[in-house]
Write a structure and sequence with these properties.
The structure is a single chain. The protein is of the alpha+beta class. It has nine helices and five strands. The strands form two sheets. A three-stranded antiparallel beta sheet has the order 3-5-4. A two-stranded antiparallel ribbon has the order 1-2.
């Protein structure tokens, strides 16, 4: 079960874990909860989290900044991060608005962020509407709604 969770690039449901391990779903649910509790008690650098899509391992929030440079998106430039921040805060947002804020380089930033799977676009009149993806939420460990709520408090 732990190996399945470790190698999967997406959250796994109890049903998927049951198929992978050959164990009944009720037993899988008990084992998953046991793993989650053990990781919490032993204070590992990662945790087992239940998302709407299933269960997955995540780096604990207090360690994310310390290991961020080792992560797959550590190569995001400052301009790409600014673009991503605008999309996360204002989504769905017109690409033309981002270009207005950041200039023509924003087109390249948007393209690279789409290639990395962090944002998605859809045609909208003569521009595109941009929004974050589930990969964004998975990587940053927070939902776009939570980000918007945090920004509204400030």
């Amino acid at each position: 079960m732990e190996a399945s969770l470790f190698v999967s690039d997406k959250p796994l449901t109890v049903e998927q874990l049951s198929k992978a391990t050959g164990l009944p779903q009720d037993e899988v649910a008990k084992i998953v909860e046991q793993i989650r509790i053990e990781l919490e008690i032993e204070e590992h650098g990662y945790e087992l989290v239940e998302t709407p899509e299933g269960y997955e391992y995540r780096v604990r929030a207090e360690y994310r900044d310390k290991v961020a440079k080792l992560a797959p998106f550590a190569d995001l430039s400052t301009g790409m991060m600014r673009t991503l921040a605008i999309v996360a805060a204002k989504q769905p947002v017109k690409q033309s608005l981002i270009v207005k804020y950041q200039g023509n380089k924003a087109y390249a930033y948007v393209h690279k962020l789409e290639d990395k799977g962090l944002i998605k676009s859809q045609p909208y009149r003569r521009t595109k509407l941009l929004s974050t993806t589930s990969e964004f939420e998975k990587y940053f460990g927070t939902s776009s709604e939570q980000i918007k709520a945090m920004l509204e408090k400030k």
